[in-house]
């Protein structure tokens, strides 16, 4: 008698059926669909250290040798300076004077020739001061003063001219002599702003008016002595200005007013 198999029970020994493999396992699930999700290698792996951030700091670039100490700078510039000194010495362009400039270094100016040329060119009374030994002329110039004088015929303001020679006193102080055909106030204004008369000086009978005030380059302006000298060729307005003392002012004033104007060619 044939027994019907129970539901779910395998039938053994039936023809055409394959024997059960005792070592076979349960059906393998679909790898793609049924496999457990694989962990993301990058996300689940242990964090890797940042190579750039955690690496040892790179060494600083080497400092230029010029910035290491002053000795390098000295050895770089020293030879150049030495070459300049040697070249200047060979050319005679400089000399060493530990006590300061001597009298021989003061430029010479031919005052007699310059004043004669000014008299011929400007056609105004020009005097050559008779100064004692020790006084040296070192500069000179000609200048114009627009509207500097009043024409005696027309009464109009016209251009004035002036001649200036600079002198060094025996003590080395500077004092200039300006001779002009300008009116007094216009001449004073051309020498310095805001100057006002503060007194007078009598020099051998000639009255010199002293002007002071104003400033030049942030320092008080030097005083100006002025007088009008008359002569055969007409009046001339004279002005003295510089850093010299009162005695030197009086010496130059007397040396000028005692002379007659130079002849005009």
Number of helices: 7
Radius of gyration: 54 Å
Task: Please report the distance between the alpha carbons of the first and last residues.
Answer: 176 Å
Name the beta content range: 15-25%
Oligomer: single chain
Q: Name the CATH superfamily assignment of one domain.
A: MucB/RseB, C-terminal domain
The major sheet is characterized as:
7 strands, antiparallel
> Mean pLDDT across all residues, rounded?
78
Order of helices and strands: HHHHHEEEHEEEEEEH
Question: From the coordinates shown, what is the CATH architecture of one domain?
Answer: 2-Layer Sandwich
Give the proportion of residues in helices.
10-25%
Unreliable spans are 1-52
Query: Looking at the structure, what is the overall shape?
Result: elongated
User: How many strands in all?
Assistant: 9
Structural class: alpha+beta
CATH class of one domain: Alpha Beta
Read across the widest sheet, the strand sequence of neighbours is: 1-2-3-9-8-5-4
At CATH level 3, the topology of one domain is: Phosphorylase Kinase, domain 1
């Amino acid at each position: 008698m044939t027994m019907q198999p129970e539901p779910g029970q395998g039938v053994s020994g039936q023809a055409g059926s394959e024997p059960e493999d005792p070592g076979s396992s349960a059906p393998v699930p679909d790898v793609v669909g049924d496999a457990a999700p694989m962990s993301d290698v990058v996300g689940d792996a242990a964090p890797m250290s940042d190579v750039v951030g955690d690496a040892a700091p790179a060494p600083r670039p080497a400092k230029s040798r010029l910035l290491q100490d002053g000795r390098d700078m000295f050895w770089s510039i020293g030879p150049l300076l030495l070459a300049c000194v040697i070249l200047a010495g060979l050319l005679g362009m400089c000399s060493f004077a530990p006590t300061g400039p001597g009298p021989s270094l003061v430029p010479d100016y031919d005052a007699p020739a310059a004043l004669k040329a000014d008299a011929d060119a400007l056609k105004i009374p020009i005097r050559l001061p008779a100064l004692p030994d020790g006084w040296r002329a070192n500069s000179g110039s000609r200048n114009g003063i627009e509207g500097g004088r009043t024409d005696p015929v027309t009464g109009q303001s016209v251009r004035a001219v002036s001649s200036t020679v600079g002198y060094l006193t025996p003590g080395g102080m500077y004092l200039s002599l300006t001779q002009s055909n300008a009116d007094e106030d216009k001449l004073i204004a051309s020498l310095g702003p805001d100057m006002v008369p503060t007194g007078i000086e009598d020099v051998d009978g000639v009255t010199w008016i002293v002007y002071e005030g104003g400033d030049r380059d942030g320092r008080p302006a030097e005083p100006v002595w002025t007088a009008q000298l008359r002569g055969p060729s007409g009046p001339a307005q004279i002005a003295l200005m510089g850093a010299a003392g009162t005695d030197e002012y009086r010496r130059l004033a007397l040396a000028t007013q005692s002379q007659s104007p130079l002849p005009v060619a």
